[in-house]
Design a protein that fits this description.
This protein has 17 helices and 29 strands. The protein is an alpha/beta fold. Strand 6 and strand 7 form a beta hairpin. About 0% of the residues have low confidence.
Length: about 700
C-alpha cells in the first residue's frame, strides 16, 4: 500500500467515530452467518443447548459486521489496509526526510526532544496538528537526526504538560544507571534480510514450547535473543516441539511482570537485544521447522504515564474506558476502550506489525476472559449458558477480538491464534461464519486446575480414571484446544509446579540416581503418567512451559526488593538435565519420546478417541486413537497380570512405557514382546479380541497395532 493511501485512511479515521450504528448498510455475503439444514446457525447446530441464545449470537455477529463495514469503508479497503497505522504513526525515514506522527487529540502542542537538540524545545522540532484530526505531524531533514539517538515527546495540554514516549515507538531502551526509558531512533544501515520468506507451521499436532527469553539461560542474568537462538532453540528442536510461544516481547517497564504490563506495544523489549536479533531468532526457528507465536497483551496496559499510555496527552481516557471501567481491579492496570475506532486501529495495526515486520506465525492472546466480561470474569462461576448471554458481556471487546482474528488470517492465512480463556465462552474458537469469534484454538485451562486439585486433595488410591478421562477431553467438539498440565502460571512464586507438588523438598536431597526415596519414585512416575494422559487426549495441540518437561526444581521469582534483586530464580538450570548422574534427564527423555508417539500418527489430533475400558475400582483406563492403544494403571499399589482389553484383532508392539528403566522406572514389563490378541467367539463379528497385558502399579504403556 502506498504512503498516500495510508495517509488518507488515517486522516479519515477520526471521522468514523461519528457514524452511528444502523446508519450504514450491513453487507451480506461470505462473512454472513451461515444457516445449516436444521435452520440454526453453525454453533447452535453443533450444540442445540445454545438455541435459546441464538438471537443474542446473531446480534453479536451483526454488530461485528456493522463495525467491519465502518472500518473497511463498506468494503472499499481491506482490513489489512486499515491496519497499516504502524506505517503512518511513529518516526519513519521516507525518501530524504524524517516524518513523525502521533495521535493525541487532547494535546495543545507537541515537541520532539532528544539527543539531536540537547533535549531542548525548539520550533524546528514542533509538530503541527493535521487539520480536522487528532493527529500531529513533524517533518525533518534526513541529516538532523541519526540512528541510535534517544528521544521523547514533550506534550502540552490544557492545564499541564509532560515528557512522553510516543505510543507508536518501535524501539524503546532503558538507561542502565538511571533506569529511565526513552524512545530510540532505529534505522540501521543494513536492514535484516530474511532467509525464509514464507513458513508453514506444523499443526498435526501443534506442540508448543512456552518460553521466556530473559529467563531462559542458566546464568543469573537476563538472557538475550541471540543466546536463546544459540543455546535454547537447539534444545527445543531436539525435544521434538514444533512451535515456540515467546512471552514478554512487547516492552514493559517492570521485568518482574513477566511481560504482562506493557508500556510500548510496538517495541520488542530491548532487554533481550535488538529488533534484528529477534528477527534472526525467528528466522532460525523457521529454518528448523519451528513456528514462533507471540504472547500478545491487548487485554490491558500498564498504568505508567511517562513511558506508557496512561496519560499520553492530558486525557487518561484517550485509549481506555472511562469511569469504573477504567482500572482493572485485580491487575492494577488500565482497560482499553474497544468501542473507539482509533483504539481498534491501534490494536489491529499492532497485530499486523508483529506479523509483517517480524514474521511471527500468530499469537496467544492473553487475558481474553478479562476482555469478554464487564466483571473481567472475577467472582463469576459460569455454571450455565445463560452466564454467557446475560448482558454482562463487553460487546465491544467481543467485536474487537473477532475482527482481530479476521485481520490476522487476512494477513497470514496460516497464522495460529490461541485464546487464553477460562470461562468457557461458546464459539470462541469457532468459525466466524458459524457465529463464532474466529480463534484457531482455546487454552484448556480446566486441565491444570484439575491436576492441581487432584494432587492436593486426593490420595493416590482415590484417583478415578473416569474423572481423569472426562477432564482431559472435556471441550466443545467444534472448537480446537491446546491441552497442558501446567504453564508458567503454575511455576510462579505462590504456586507450585506438578513435580514440586509431588516431591517437594526431596527434589534437593534425593534426586540423584541410586539415592531416590519413595516420594521421588512416586513423583517421577506420576509426572510421566499425567503428561501422557493429557497429551494423548488432545484435539488440537499440547503445551509445555520451558523446563517443566524435565521437572525443573525451582519456582520463578523475578528480581525484586524482597529477594535482593536476585536472578537466582529467574533462570532455567539446564545443567541439571545435562547431568546424567541426576534423575532430571529421565523426564526429559520421556517427554521427547512421548512427542515422537504423537507425531507418529498422521493428524493425530484429529483421530477419534475411542474408550476401550475404564474401571475406577481397579484404577485402570484404556483408550485408542488410530492404531495406538493407551493403557494407564493409576493404582499406587496394585499390579495386574493378564488384564484384558477388547481391541481390534491383531498384533501389538510396545512404543512407550513410563515404567521403562530408560525413563527412571522399574522396567518390570518386557517391552520387546509382541502381543497377540486372544480369540473370543462372542466378539468375532466385531473383529475384536482380548489384548492381555501385565500392568505394573503406577505406570502407563502405549501399544501400536502392527
Amino acid at each position: 500500500m502506498m504512503q498516500d493511501d495510508v495517509l488518507k485512511i488515517n486522516r479519515q479515521l477520526s471521522t468514523t467515530n461519528n457514524i452511528k450504528k444502523g446508519s450504514k448498510k450491513i453487507m451480506v455475503g461470505k462473512n454472513t452467518i451461515q444457516k445449516k439444514q436444521s435452520g440454526h446457525i453453525g454453533i447452535v447446530n453443533n450444540d442445540i443447548y445454545l438455541e435459546p441464545y441464538e438471537d443474542a449470537i446473531r446480534g453479536r455477529h451483526e454488530h461485528i459486521l456493522w463495525k467491519l463495514n465502518i472500518l473497511t469503508q463498506n468494503g472499499k479497503i481491506s482490513l489489512s489496509d486499515f491496519a497499516n497505522g504502524y506505517k503512518y504513526f511513529g518516526l519513519h525515514k521516507i525518501s530524504n526526510e524524517w516524518v513523525f506522527r502521533e495521535w493525541a487529540p487532547n494535546a495543545t502542542a507537541i515537541y520532539l526532544v532528544g539527543d539531536f537538540n540537547d533535549w531542548q524545545e525548539s520550533d524546528t522540532f514542533k509538530a503541527i496538528r493535521i487539520e480536522g484530526t487528532g493527529n500531529w505531524e513533524l517533518k525533518l531533514p534526513d541529516n538532523i537526526i541519526k540512528h541510535g539517538d534517544l528521544y521523547k515527546m514533550h506534550v502540552y495540554w490544557d492545564g499541564g504538560n509532560g515528557e512522553r514516549i510516543p505510543a507508536w515507538a518501535q524501539r524503546v531502551v532503558q538507561d542502565e544507571h538511571t533506569k529511565i526509558f526513552s524512545a530510540q531512533v532505529w534505522s540501521p544501515a543494513k536492514s535484516y534480510v530474511w532467509r525464509k520468506k514464507t513458513f508453514k507451521p506444523k499443526t498435526s499436532p501443534l506442540l508448543i514450547y512456552e518460553c521466556h527469553v530473559g529467563m531462559s539461560q542458566d546464568a543469573e542474568k537476563v538472557g538475550t535473543y541471540r543466546e536463546f537462538k544459540d543455546n535454547v532453540l537447539p534444545r527445543i528442536v531436539k525435544a521434538g516441539y514444533n512451535c515456540i510461544q515467546i512471552m514478554a516481547i512487547q516492552e514493559h517497564p517492570y521485568y518482574g511482570s513477566f511481560g504482562y504490563h506493557v508500556s510500548s506495544f510496538f517495541a520488542p523489549s530491548s532487554r533481550f537485544g535488538t529488533p534484528e536479533e529477534l528477527k534472526e531468532l525467528i528466522d532460525t526457528a523457521h529454518d528448523n521447522g519451528i513456528a514462533v507465536i507471540m504472547d500478545i497483551v491487548h487485554s490491558h496496559a500498564v498504568k505508567n504515564e511517562v513511558e506508557g499510555l496512561g496519560n499520553l496527552a492530558g486525557d487518561p481516557n484517550q485509549y481506555f474506558y472511562q469511569g469504573d471501567r477504567h482500572n482493572h481491579p485485580a491487575w492494577d492496570s488500565l482497560c482499553f476502550d474497544y468501542g473507539k475506532d482509533d483504539v481498534i486501529h491501534f490494536l489491529l495495526s499492532n497485530c499486523k506489525y508483529w506479523l509483517s515486520e517480524f514474521h511471527f506465525d500468530g499469537f496467544r492472546f492473553d487475558g481474553v476472559t478479562s476482555m469478554l466480561y464487564y466483571s473481567h470474569g472475577l467472582g463469576e462461576a459460569f455454571t450455565n449458558y445463560g452466564d454467557y448471554f446475560n448482558g454482562h458481556e463487553d460487546d465491544n471487546a467481543i467485536c474487537y477480538l473477532t475482527i482481530a482474528n479476521k485481520l490476522i488470517h487476512e494477513v497470514n492465512p496460516l497464522a495460529l491464534i490461541i485464546a487464553e480463556e477460562v470461562s468457557g465462552m461458546p464459539g470462541l474458537a469457532a468459525r466466524f461464519e458459524d457465529g463464532g469469534y474466529g480463534f484457531d484454538y482455546r487454552m484448556a485451562m480446566n486441565i491444570p486446575d484439575f491436576w492441581i486439585k487432584t494432587i492436593k486433595e486426593l490420595r493416590d488410591e482415590d484417583w478415578k480414571p473416569s474423572s481423569i478421562f472426562w477432564e482431559v477431553k472435556n471441550r466443545r467438539p467444534d472448537e480446537k484446544t491446546i491441552s497442558y498440565c501446567e504453564s508458567h502460571d503454575q511455576a510462579l512464586v505462590g504456586d507450585k509446579t506438578i513435580i514440586f507438588r509431588l516431591i517437594d523438598a526431596d527434589m534437593y536431597w534425593h534426586f540423584k540416581k541410586g539415592d531416590e526415596n519413595e516420594r521421588v519414585h512416586r513423583g517421577i512416575a506420576l509426572h510421566k503418567i499425567i503428561r501422557l494422559v493429557t497429551a494423548a487426549a488432545i484435539n488440537g495441540g499440547y503445551l509445555n512451559f520451558m523446563g517443566n518437561e524435565f521437572g525443573h526444581p525451582e519456582w520463578i521469582d523475578f528480581p525484586r526488593e524482597g529477594n535482593g534483586w536476585s536472578y537466582k530464580y529467574a533462570r532455567r538450570q539446564w545443567h541439571l538435565v545435562d547431568n546424567k548422574e541426576l534423575d532430571y534427564h529421565y523426564l526429559a527423555d520421556f517427554d521427547r519420546e512421548m512427542l515422537k508417539v504423537l507425531k507418529s500418527i498422521r493428524d493425530f489430533n484429529k483421530t477419534a478417541i475411542n474408550e476401550i475400558w475404564h474401571n475406577d475400582s481397579d484404577q485402570i483406563l484404556c483408550f485408542m486413537r488410530g492404531n495406538l492403544v493407551f493403557v494407564f494403571n493409576f493404582s499406587p499399589v496394585r499390579s495386574y497380570t493378564d488384564y484384558g482389553f477388547l481391541v481390534p484383532t491383531g498384533s501389538y508392539c510396545s512404543l512407550l512405557n513410563t515404567d521403562a528403566k530408560t525413563f527412571g522406572g522399574n522396567g518390570l514389563a518386557d517391552d520387546t514382546l509382541i502381543h497377540l490378541t486372544n480369540y473370543d467367539p462372542l466378539y468375532a463379528n466385531e473383529q475384536k479380541e482380548w489384548l492381555k497385558l501385565y500392568l505394573p502399579a503406577r505406570s502407563a504403556v502405549v501399544l501400536k497395532k502392527i
